[in-house]
Design a protein that fits this description.
The protein is mostly helical. It has one domain (48-165). 72% of the residues lie in helices and 0% in strands. α3 (79-112) runs antiparallel to α5 (134-145) and α5 packs across α6. The radius of gyration is 23 Å and the shape is flat. The protein starts with 5 loop residues before the first helix and ends with a helix. InterPro entries: 7TM_GPCR_serpentine_rcpt_Str. Keywords: Membrane, Transmembrane, Transmembrane helix. Pfam families: 7TM_GPCR_Str. The chain crosses the membrane at residues 42-66, 87-113, 125-146.
């Protein structure tokens, strides 16, 4: 869908050199110029967020369908099993929601700036690099929401502190 555009090349040549220190002739890039006459770029800018939105709708639909289906059958299971099931459900939802707010929403905001006709110059590599923290955040969510992991972590931390104080 993307194609070369002299207007975007002209704008990006200076911007990429001043902000990142790169010559646009040496790196691959895609720059969308939003206008009524450039329908391909408009479709590209609308298409990607639509795909992400459909994914989130599917995730939440399946999660809540499973939740309500399981609740109707939970009367046959023990209290311990019900508790584990509830913890698992909360953990799975947190593993979807937390990264969305911490990582993906800032990237979406940067992605949507051209629609507002704002000329903002900033180094967005911080947002892109923050995506590498996803595995750590995922582990922290598990440590915080699963009581057994949280208890083991607290015991380990207290032993480590006690050893350091001796």
């Amino acid at each position: 869908m993307g194609e070369e555009n002299p207007k975007s090349d002209e704008y990006l040549r200076d911007e990429m050199f001043h902000v990142y220190g790169f010559d646009i002739e040496t790196i691959p890039y895609y720059a969308a110029i939003i206008s009524k006459s450039n329908i391909k770029s408009f479709l590209m800018m609308i298409g990607m967020p639509t795909i992400v939105l459909i994914n989130y709708i599917a995730i939440f639909f399946c999660a809540f369908r499973i939740k309500f289906h399981k609740n109707s059958q939970m009367v046959f299971y023990s209290a311990q099993y019900q508790k584990i099931n509830q913890i698992l459900f909360r953990t799975l939802l947190a593993q979807v929601i937390v990264p969305t707010f911490i990582f993906f929403l800032p990237v979406i905001l940067i992605y949507a700036i051209p629609f507002a006709n704002l000329e903002i110059s900033m180094n967005t590599s911080v947002f892109i690099c923050s995506l590498s923290f996803y595995p750590a955040i995922d582990g922290i969510i598990l440590l915080c929401l699963v009581p057994d992991y949280r208890n083991i972590f607290c015991i380990w931390k207290s032993r480590k502190n006690n050893a350091a104080n001796k």
